[in-house]
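Help! Submission page says 'invalid entity' but I think these are all valid:
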Amino acid sequence: MSLRALLGLALLLLAPEASAQADPEATRGFGATDAPRTLLVRGTTDIALFGPVLGAFVAASPEVRVEYEQWSSNGLYAAGEAACTADAADADLLISSAVDQLVKLVNDGCARPYRSARTDRLPAGASWRDEIFGITREPAVLVYNRDLVPASQAPRSRFDLIDLLRPADSPYAGRVATYDIEASGLGYLFAFVDSRQATTFGSLIEAFGRSGAVATCCSAEIIDGVIAGRFLVAYNVLGSYALARAETAPNLAVVAPDDYTLVLSRAAMLPAGARNPDDAGLLLDFLLSDAGRRELAAARLIVDLDEPDETLLTLPSGSAVLRQIPLSPVLLVGLDRQKRARFLELWRGTFTTE
Amino acid sequence: MSSRADRRPALRLSLTARLAGALALIFALGGIAVGVAALAYGRSAAQQSYDRLLIGAATQIADALSVRGGEVVVDLPVSAFELLSLAPDDRIVYAIHDPAGRLLTGYDTLRPPPSQATFFNATFRGEPVRVAHVRRPFAERSFSGVVEVLVGQTTRARARLANQITRNALIAAGIAGLVMSGLAVFAVRSALQPLRRIERDIAGRPPHDLTPVTVAVPREIASLVAALNRFVARLDRQVGVMRNLIADASHQLRTPIAAVRAQAELAADETDPERLRAAVARIHRRSVTLGRLADQLLSHALIIHRADSAALARIDLRTVAIRTLEQTDHDLLGDGIRPHLDLPEDPVWAEGDPLSLVEASKNLVLNALRHGQPPVTLTVRVAAGTACIAVRDAGPGMPAAQWADAGARFARSRGVSADSAGLGLAIVQAVATAHKGRLAFRRTAGGTFEAAIDLPAADRGGA
């Protein structure tokens, strides 16, 4: 092996994020190709879900063309951090479900502030420093396969899940899935916030470890696995994706856990190196407007948890158990190098990654 | 007199304007002082409260350090960050270094300062930060040394709190200033109230009322009222003099003028040259008397006016005596009786107006020449603090019963004579009083009669 190859391998190992940097998972343009202005948006949201929202935006603002790049959360964070460190030009708007990573970018001075009448109306915890803004409302849910899980065993809470996994010959052993928190920024965030919410988390990952639960990447993969029957139950799946799939997959049951339900507000921020911050602000204001919120609700990115008219979602009995993840520098703790290393070590010791 | 009346007093700034100006200046200076103090206080108060937050968070992090297998393990406590997020809009920077200076976790841009200071200022990606520095010593078998914990935060919350404190302090100071201004206006008004009372008292008087102002006033302007009253008294005296002059003139001059006119009319019809000459002689005599009378009246008025208004100077009474004789000589040129002059070797000092004193002495001399027996002597002496200019004659003098009111106008029981209107002693009396002295009559050991003006003697070298 040549020295250069060794060096390349070393770089790859040392900076796995750098390798993820240059590759959006998918891209799509919205609006007229000859529009006078172009806006580059990077997000973790699937194009299938977010596309209609952007379509509505370019319909309202035809002078802007939106180029949307779909990234993994870790890749998006690494690209933002690299651009920030190098003071280089960046995308115009970053939208990520791994809000802790965006909070860290803001904390590291990588964001530019934006204020408007709409951002001023955001409640406390839904914005920070006028640099990061929560735009969606998505619960972290349990999903299970209605065909394969008998109604009597259908889990309604984390306790139910622990109970299902307790018997040594549990049929659920090896067939419960959750995010691979090393690969998924959102999975890490959910797991980290879970670890702070209740002691249930310790019992849960212990149960996961004992029963050989599967940690895997990506919401779509997990949900498809449940629909296909490869997994019986999946834990901490993002409700928006699950509900979108449940519309076409009647065997997918979506449950907001009864003990507590984490609620994520997907965050948007304007990077300091944005080339077109004005139109980024325009899009942000659209996302916070009534029209934008209607589009987000239609895409299931805003899930109505207060008025339970959903037939697809089993809601907890009281809204007191809803726990919003606030946009605050407290989220930085989870991203601390040592803290993260120890947390991942604990996780790795428990899980067999698929 | 007219020149003074024409010179209107230049209109100066009103008292209220001056007080308002002074108060405005005081308030402005006070306001600036309060503002500076409030800013300093606000800054230090904000600094202190948020420094406590920082040190609290740093201490929590330091407490969460542990040593495992010869390595320092940092288990960042969430509570420390929750504490820091009490400054809601501030970015957080932290770094934990091992004894060798290697970064254990956190931001590598944040380095411990060379000094041991607990707090220091730095910058964190373009924003100023305040950093707390806590040192945690370890002395384990596997690890020993000091781990340095640095926790910093940007300064938005501090600045906001400082501004808030400053603004509140300034608002309070402003309200206090307004209240004080109100009180000051009230105080000025009430302080000026006595002046208004005096104004009303004077404005409300009838035209001839020259009595003293008796409005109750505070001590500060009592001297003003006293000066005003002195002025009014002087005015009153002068008006009195004028009134007396007019009364005397009408009383004293009317009869002789009528007599002169009657005799002139008689003379006009007279055809006999001899009787005509006699009539003309009578008219002449009468005219001389009339002239002297007018002279005396005017002199009396003049002297009394001077006594009130002329400034007193230190004079030698011997000079007064010499001048008196010079002028008396003039008047008595035809009579051939010369008064004697008896003067001491040394000057006799007194405070006085030479002109009035000469006039008064002249009257005494004339009285002595007219009513007394020669020889008439004008003498000056000083004894026991009293300087004295006196006229002696060998006659029996005035009866002692008349001494007391001899100085009053027209006191003589005999009435108006052909030669005198009886004003002579009244003039002397007025002059003596104006000089803080008195008119005195005595009989001397040698059997002579003496009329004297006794004045307080001035110091030898004084004044």
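Support: the input was valid. A stray whitespace character was the problem, and the output above is from the cleaned input. The first strand of chain B starts at residue 65 and ends at 68.
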